[in-house]
Write a structure and sequence with these properties.
Strand content: under 5%
Order of helices and strands: HHHHHHHH
Number of strands: 0
Helix content: 55-70%
Largest sheet: none
Length: 189
């Protein structure tokens, strides 16, 4: 990022994009539930990184700055949807969200097992989209992107304890949603 910021090095910027494009697209897809819009949001995130390269503080981690930009774009997108909902002309899934299904490799799984895993992933995805944004973002950053609690706290600009309490509440709410959807694991006595 130093080369991008101080020398307008386009090759260095291309390396940053190559390294971070997929994680940012995944984050945006999980936050918005729309793969196509996630691609646009990721592109916008990198556009903002480049246009605001002079604002970057080298003492901070680049990844924290990038995650924050992407999260903010997702929040803006979700607010825009609430103000002006869109209704696509093509067919949609049961939940009204264009397919953001997770693909599973078929490593030794039978076709029936692959279908079952895909169905489970779709139920979890739908449940995740029902969480309020503040809870969804901590779940996505922790469980899907693998950030540690202190890293999530840096990205969101909140105390680590708040991240942990939001995670606890998010998982509790997610469990309730999954139970309503009939996907919660059975409790053994």
């Amino acid at each position: 990022m130093w080369r991008v910021q101080n020398a307008d090095d386009h090759a260095a910027f291309a390396q940053l994009v190559a390294r971070w494009e997929q994680p940012i697209q995944r984050l945006c897809a999980r936050m918005t539930g729309d793969l196509h819009r996630a691609e646009d949001l990721a592109q916008e995130a990198f556009s903002r990184v480049f246009s605001r390269r002079r604002d970057y503080q080298p003492a901070a981690k680049f990844s924290t700055w990038l995650w924050r930009i992407a999260i903010n774009l997702c929040h803006d997108e979700l607010r825009r949807r609430q103000r002006r909902p869109e209704h696509p002309l093509e067919a949609e899934g049961d939940d009204g969200v264009e397919g953001a299904a997770v693909q599973f490799p078929g490593h030794g799984l039978s076709p029936a097992e692959v279908v079952e895993k895909l169905e489970q992933a779709e139920i979890v995805r739908r449940a995740l989209l029902q969480l309020p944004e503040t809870y969804r973002e901590v779940v996505v950053l922790r469980h899907y992107e693998g950030l540690k609690f202190h890293e999530i706290a840096e990205v969101l600009g909140i105390p680590e304890g708040t991240v942990k309490s939001r995670m606890f509440e998010a998982l509790d709410r997610l469990g309730g949603i999954l139970k309503r959807l009939g996907a919660a694991p059975e409790q053994h006595r």
